[in-house]
Amino acid sequence: MNKINRKKRRYFRAILLLFMCSIVLYTLFSNISKDKYVVSEGDYAPNFSLETLQGERVELKDYRGEGVFLNFWGTWCKPCEREMPYMEEEYKNFKDQGVEILAVNIEESDLIVQNFVDRFNLSFPILMDRDGEVTGKYKIGPIPTTFLIDKNGKVVKIITGSMTQQDVKKYMNLIKP
Amino acid sequence: MNKIKCECGHVNHEGTVLCEACGKPIEGNQHIDGNDKTRLLNMRYDGSARRSQTYKKSIIDKIWNFFSSVKVGVWLIVLTLVASAMGTIFPQEQWIPANAVSRDPAIYYESTYGIFGQIYYQLGFYDLYSSWWYLLLVALIGISLVICSIDRFVPLYKALKNQKAKRHETFLSRQRLYSESDNVSKEEKQQIIKSLKKQRYSVRDENGHILAEKGRFSRWGPYVNHIGLIIVLIAAVLRMTTPMYIDEYMWIREGERTVIPGTNGEYYAKNKDFILETYDKDNQRFEEAIKKEGVVAKNFETELVIYKDQTSATGAEPKLEKLKEGSTRLNHPMKFDGYALYQAGYQSNEFSSMSFKVHETDDPNETAIGSITIDLTSPKSEYKLDNGLRVVIDQYFPDYYLDNGEPRSKSKYPKNPAFVFFIYPPNSDDPEVSFVGIRKNIDATGENEYKLGLQDFEMRDVSGIMVIRDYTLPLFFLGGVIFMIGVIQGMYWHHRRIWINPKNGKLLLAAHTNKNWHGVKTDIEKAIANTNVNMVKDQQELPG
């Protein structure tokens, strides 16, 4: 009887302590990971549908089976401007290998975007996020931010900041189906 | 584990200081409450066996004992207080003013506060309240609260439940209030009982041994109070870690529609109009303020239309349905589906449209040949005038600045619009180039036949709106209410016990209370009036 009581007490206290420790750990962990992207590496990329500069509607899920190089950018952003020619160069090489670039422009006017596209001779589709819908969905902070999505629709890697041509090549190889 | 059988027959847990039933000090355990050194008994938790004071061997015992110590609890609170105070020395990262040297904490603190700022930054105090160690401190307080309460509440509850009216004479004589009386008649005893009952004591009579007790309820006050605190802590955890609490900020331009942050793309808002009203210059009431400030704002308001996307879960093309139309005024949020939109700021430094007139360069009167109006959010690339002249926008910089001689835009917002225009004279494919911006009008070649002059412009306001959704508030409220109930319970009721036990022809009278000793003395005085019973002496006041 006494032994049982003692065991009961020990279990009670051990379980209580364990329970409280796990709450504390959970809180700490979720607080640390809170400020990161809503969409993180390993997640499925949330689907969206946007119009291109030419007015065609494009939906992300239609690219299943292909690697998607999802780039968020703006014309005023210098690092975005820097990596655009590299993206264009590599796009030419990787297009036939099943890698698509979707470059989401954040809330700018057609005129400005068109000027920019003409200036850099961009051939990949430019998506116009006019209401900031997709930018909000992916919780984009600083730009450029690029999501590398594999053929299964999973986010393989998230890159913030400008890329070199080497980087672009490396990343496109990563998501090549 | 050794149970201890008292001479009264009650079996006590190991570590008991005073027998739960009769209160007799249990030999060998008196050092625990320090009774071995004093004349009076330490009545803390009624001398019950507290786990933390009894078992000290296993790791779990040790952890338990650490947290069950009030001393540790107080230190945790002091540390948290000191840490919280530290966080207020310099502004936290999120409150670095917008016009600071740099909003990068690595630069801001050192450049603004010198060496102390640098230390502050390097210790990570710039984001103190969400640092892991600060959260850990708060969490440890929570654990301490739970364990302290359990460690004390359970044995105290048992001791008070198991207590008998018949007490050991050592227990009685070592109470603070105590007296012995001879020759007390049965009638007098009945009279005392009656009087105690009248004073709302619940009286137990066990073979002539009397226990009069009231306000035991008050003893649970601190534990109720702690339950309230724990609920508040749980609410804080939920607020920090789950989407039960959403706190976002958005800038929304007049005429624009944008997705509301924090809603997972489910809701959109359109800013129909931002309204800033000021008090009349002749306003009597604010005469002083108007003299000092020039203008005094009376109202900040944004007229909004809220839309709900019916397809947000699938990510297909948004199908927006109008949900609500209304306005958010300062301190009067607009509410929908659990969200509240608060008017929180505004900017009025953006252009929405500009009108230019075209005239001949050498016309001294600058008579307009025609004019164009450019919508700055969606400018067209070409504007035709009646006389066949065409104005083509070659380049548009919404927020113009010169970057090493190269014109660029600082942002996507039309705060300082500038254009490179190609003007095609009628029947000509040979454009004249001119650069036009705010207070800038540059003729590239100096030979232009036509010139553009700024005629008119419209500004648009940008409204700053806070998006709040807080489902944790009711939980905070509940915790607060329970906390307050606990405080009241412990403060406004007093636990008083009076023992009257016959022993060897004498009548022993003793009393204990957890607060207001004067009160219990008055109760006893009233009860024993007109009897042979001697008034209790306050043994604490006696020397020795």
From TrEMBL, chain B:
It holds the Pfam family ResB. GO terms for cellular component: membrane. InterPro entries: Cyt_c_bgen_Ccs1/CcsB/ResB, ResB-like_domain. It is found in: Membrane. GO terms for biological process: cytochrome complex assembly. The chain crosses the membrane at residues 72-90, 132-154, 223-240, 471-493. It is a multi-pass membrane protein. Its main location: membrane. Coiled coil: none annotated. Residues 70-524 form the ResB-like domain. Keywords: Cytochrome c-type biogenesis, Membrane, Transmembrane, Transmembrane helix. This is Cytochrome C biogenesis protein. It comes from Gracilibacillus oryzae.
